[in-house]
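Quick note —
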Amino acid sequence: MRILLLVDCYFPHSKSSATQMHDMALEFCRRDHDVVVLTPSERISENVEVAWEDGVQVIRVKTRKIKGALKVFRALEEARLSSVVWRRAKQFLLGNPVDLIVFYRPISNTLLRSSRTAASR
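Predicted structure written out below.
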């Protein structure tokens, strides 16, 4: 089966979720699946970078800085992230269909605080 992991960050990023997604990708590979990871990156120079890492095809899509940006800029970039990733990776995705998509994106702490505040009112 061809599996797409759609994640907000990926190895070698230092976040624990990046390592978890890398481990998941390796486990799918170990079970004889073809794995593609699609992830945003502010660290690449081209709009799309395709690489093979540990038997996993990794597609990085250029985005502006999200993590560590001022809240207003982060909110704007988060809001447009899906359209940027789709627009830049569309050609690759249409030419490389998958059987299963695993989407992982943690809820931001700002959203959690806002929802807790609203719930306590």
